[in-house]
Amino acid sequence: MFPNRFIHQVTPLSLLPFLLWACLAGAAPVAEDQRVPIDLRRTTLVVADIDRSLAFYRDALGMTVVYDNKIRSPRSAASDDEAERVSRLVFLQANDDFVGVLGLLEYQKPRKPEPATASQPFSIGTTVKVFNLENLEQQFEQVRGIAGVTIISEPSPRNYPSYDGKSTIPVLVSIVTDPDGFVVELNQLLVESVR
Questions:
Q1: What's the rounded Cα separation, in Å, for the pair 53 and 45?
Q2: pLDDT along the chain (195 residues), means of 10
Q3: Half-sphere exposure of 30 (CA within 13 A, CB side)
Q4: 64, 102, 109, 59: which is closest to 84 by C-alpha?
Q5: pTM for this one?
Q6: Cα–Cα distance measured from residue 172 to residue 160, given in angstroms and rounded to the nearest whole number
Q7: Which structural domains are found in the chain, ordered by start?
């Protein structure tokens, strides 16, 4: 799916910004005097087949479904047949019920066409979702078995500079694309604290 020249361009240095952000996954909220007036609550992915996406995010990664509903328009439509537009919206969460929620949105009526060409991972306009797992190697085997997942890099140890630059942060890192082509970094911190 992706040219080999791209896969060889993914280097530990090119992934550093994503990884350092990911290392904060287990961090506590910032101190009250450092808070800003905004929280990033949810990222919603428009997908071709929610059930296929749930096999990845729920079944392989272990996220929990907290919302799963059809949205019909007009709202008075009692069934999909009566509705002009129908979509299904699912919210999944990991360990926080306020931030870090992942939305999956499938347009079912009318169906959205799939893009003619897939975007290249790590190109302008694409996103990278970073998940910190407790046992990456075990969960990676489940990820490997999900239809439509493309493995960009297998789990491998990497050392990144610490925040103060005096030591390193050891991390087990892998990169895949989900069934819709969204880039997902799966990592496991190999230390208790990164700061």
A1: 10
A2: 38 39 53 85 93 98 96 95 97 87 96 87 89 93 96 95 89 96 94 77
A3: 7
A4: 109
A5: 0.78
A6: 11
A7: 4-26+41-189 (3.10.180.10)
